[in-house]
Protein 1
Amino acid sequence: MVTTIDGVPVAPRRPFRFTSRNSKGFVMRSWLIALWTLVSAVALADPAGIRIDHVWSRATPAGATGVVYLTITNQGDPDALTGVATPVAASAGLHETIADHGVMKMRRVSSLAVTSDKPVMLTPGGYHIMLTGLKQALVAGTSFPLTLTFAKAGRVTVTAMVQAMGAAAPAAHQPGMGQMAMPGTPMRGSGPK
């Protein structure tokens, strides 16, 4: 039977069927669209607004005590750095260098407030991350992973770059210099909670 529209013959339509070829293509396209949507959402989403920059350490022999410095910028709701871990040391913790009657001392800090009003800088002579019981030597030019735990943002893993023994802070990590510098008071952690 030939169908015509306004006298013009039209080929009959075949019903659409999910053949193995059509269903494979449909399923593959569906998976690709779902994957692309998920990857786009993850790449663009940063609800916590936490950014970690200038993560560095100094070279030291295995078994010694190491230290890590960094800058935390929060562009979201107030948060707190509550823990630190790394596979290169038996333990890692937040510490602060303080002057007690003219004597420089270090004390453990349980948490460090991270607000959106200014970056928190962990620097020599201030707040820092102490690495005790290093399992391997920290060699200049190498790097190691460091996981920071925040009260709201959760865990954030960064890479610490190892500088030479006795190295000063990189220029971008010193108050008043580099991209993280702000005019006014020196940037430091806002204190333990």
Note: The chain has two domains: 14-44, 50-173.
Protein 2
Amino acid sequence: MTREPECLASSRYAGSAPTDPPWETPADNDSYPAAVLVLPPGDFAAYLFDCDGTIVDSMPLHYLAWRQAVAEWGCEFDEDLFYAWGGRPVAEIITDLNTRHGLAMPIAAVDERREALYRETLPKVTAVPEVLQHIEAAHGRIPFAVVSGGARDSVTASLTTLGLLDRFDIMVCAEDYIKPKPDPEAFLLAASRLGVPPESCLVFEDTEMGIQAATAAGMASVRVISRASPSV
């Protein structure tokens, strides 16, 4: 699987302007617990966090749920493709899988099954440690928002499992906006609800579409490189 080159977090310097490349953290599984997520310089008035793959190290578990759910309809979902499509709406993913494989999987049924399978794995979910460090360090000092492409009940379940739900002032989830990432609508809505100008927000994201959305919103961003899912 092709991944962004691994490197020391402290060596990935870019300007704090929203149009500059986002800051990143390494993906090396062996050194991951010791990773440090270096933020761009500047005084930010709010932090906006994606959920899956950013706050919650859930992408490997989501992949297993997706793979089993679509397999029950005779569909294969390649792991590389799953990560390449990270951040896309569920309905779009199922529609495109149908097109690729000549199937007619019902969107609602597959989505419900996928979510049920993911919920079964929640006891195994963990937080992304270097993001958690910044959540704990800045909590109570500036407002936080979760800005996710996931459904509110799913995001709430993940954050509740980790004991992090009360850290966030607001949640902007799939039900709250029309245009998904890379459109900036979700991030702009979060900034508006927090009462913070977009240019004063820092976005934490793990997908390219999320970074594009942050940039389009006029916000600085920091890229969290997701771990590859384990062999199963």
Note: Residues 1-34, 228-232 have pLDDT under 50 and may be disordered.
Protein 3
Amino acid sequence: MTTDEEQDAQAEKVEETRGARARAAAAAREAERKARAAAKLRENLMRRKSQARSRRAGEADTAQGLPAAKTDESS
């Protein structure tokens, strides 16, 4: 091989390793993002289950009418 061909071959290897590192970094970021999303979903599910349990354990709702309606006559 000549010097130019050797340099071209070496440059191609460098580009391949840069591309591999970039793909690996992107895959790591994606995996981290998915792990954070899964943790948030688990947290949300636990909170919703806890809310449902507390509603079942509480007393029956004694409010009459619409809960958002005002009880006084002011506007």
Note: The chain has a mean pLDDT of 80.
